[in-house]
Design brief:
By secondary structure, the protein is mostly helical. It is built from 23 helices and two strands. Strand 1 and strand 2 form a beta hairpin. Helix 4 runs antiparallel to helix 5. The longest helix is centred in the C-terminal third of the chain and has 22 residues.
Length: 443
């Protein structure tokens, strides 16, 4: 008997009981819900290529050095079962196999082809989105969603993906329209909430952004740890811009850190928020850094993405942990081994100088911090992450310039930001201090 997923895509299942797990994978993945992990309950269905590939993908999302090892048995079974599957499923298996094998350009090409040929395969599309995002290819993120917009116009999650792609391409009006369309289709659409928060932060709509996120926070239940902690992280950013650091620190303690402490995305969100709070003048206490660093110490040889390594590194260095030196040395060695164009520039030209700058900042060497971060920031998009996430590195760079006495350079960076975000009390306060240091009347 033929089966289909919730979007009408045919599924080849050796065991009909796996259908519920397939639905949970597709629907849970699109909705950023924890139920996506239920596909592992069907791992015994070794004859279903799609189920096995989905299990492999789930292991890869651990974003750890051991993830490919854990994914291999599943992708091997998927490849063995693939000849009995449909063309669409075979391409999905091949894309996940490329990911497990470390060939991201091939994985992306297969997901883009899938989006053109089977535009209602939104799980494949979202996986392609994830890879493109991590490569810093925001135009690619926008391109891959376009074939699906006509084929799956009634799916809220698709418009949430479109909104984020548009925001990352600086197409803010379109991003807001797409996010609001997603929310109109389904109020509980956390990725659209996230995209709209990005738009409001970028446009300096600080109070409105806080109010919006609070108005939809009641829907953030049953989500995966990244999505729920990340949306609270965004709310904390709006609080920091209003100089409400105590409230933002309370969100760190109750909402941002502690859901799944061994998960990469939860860890970098915690590092970033603690660092931003300190940059805004808050005293976060040494104990918070030490407790967080205890979870980062196992990451010294991961090198899954430079964007992740850099934040692990800052957390370890800020806590004064010796593992920071090991991770820095490993980043430098890993970068030197890169020969593929897709990874060489990101690691050698961005990650290495940024890593040196981050360690220097954590240790109070402001000149070296400004040098390393200043060299990396013009190309920072190549390591992935969103505009809002990468802004941490810019804030650390500006802080190093100020602390190192390079106030003219800091003014040149801070004033355009303050122009774009007139509601930001944080920026106004920091800029005021710079003007006083320059001997210029308050602007």
């Amino acid at each position: 008997m033929p089966h289909t997923d919730s979007l009408g895509n045919p599924l080849t299942l050796a065991d009909a009981a796996s259908l519920a797990a397939a639905h949970d994978f597709v629907d849970g993945f699109l909705a950023c819900e924890a139920r996506v992990a239920r596909v592992l309950d069907a791992a015994g269905d070794t004859g279903s290529a799609y189920i096995q590939a989905a299990c492999a993908a789930l292991h890869m999302f651990a974003e750890s050095a051991g993830a490919p090892v854990n994914a291999h048995p599943f992708i091997d079974r998927a490849l063995a079962a693939a000849p009995r599957a449909t063309e669409r499923e075979q391409r999905f298996v091949a894309a996940v196999a490329a990911w497990v094998g470390g060939d991201l350009p091939r994985a992306i090409a297969l997901h883009e082809e899938q989006a053109r040929l089977f535009p209602r395969d939104l799980a494949s599309l979202k996986l392609g989105h994830y890879h493109l995002f991590n490569q810093g290819d925001s135009p690619g993120m926008l391109r891959i969603v376009q074939p699906a917009l006509a084929a799956a116009s009634g799916v809220a999650a698709l418009h949430g993906m479109a909104a984020f792609a548009q925001e990352q391409c600086h197409l803010l009006r379109g991003a807001e329209a797409s996010a609001r369309r997603a929310i109109a289709l389904q109020r509980r659409e956390p990725w659209a909430h996230h995209a709209l928060a990005h738009v409001m932060l970028t446009e300096g709509r600080i109070a409105e952004g806080e109010e919006f996120l609070r108005s939809v926070a009641d829907t953030w239940v049953g989500l995966n740890s990244f999505m729920v902690t990340h949306n609270w992280w965004h709310l904390a950013l709006f609080l920091i811009e209003q100089d409400r650091q105590d409230e933002a620190l309370a969100l760190y303690d109750t909402r941002v850190w502690g859901v799944v402490k061994d998960y990469s995305q939860d860890q970098i969100g915690a590092v970033s928020l603690l660092a931003r709070l300190e940059l805004a003048g808050a005293d976060v206490g040494a104990q918070r850094w030490q407790e967080l660093a205890g979870w980062l110490g196992t990451r010294t040889a991961d090198h899954v993405l430079p964007f992740l390594d850099l934040q692990y590194l800052y957390g370890l260095a800020r806590a004064g942990r010796p593992e920071a030196d090991a991770l820095l040395a490993n980043v430098e060695a890993h970068a030197a081994r890169q020969t593929a164009p897709a990874t060489r520039a990101a690691w050698q030209q961005v990650a290495v100088p940024a890593a040196r700058g981050l360690v220097a900042h954590a240790r109070g060497d402001w000149s070296e911090a400004a040098r390393g971060l200043g060299a990396a920031i013009p190309q920072l998009v190549e390591i992935g992450g969103s505009h809002a996430q990468r802004d941490l590195f810019s804030q650390l760079w500006i802080d190093a310039l100020v602390r190192g006495g390079r106030l003219a350079a800091a003014q040149n960076l801070l004033q355009p930001q303050a122009n774009a975000q007139p509601q930001s009390k944080r920026l106004a306060r920091q800029l005021g201090a710079v003007y006083r240091g320059l001997g210029i009347a308050a602007q």
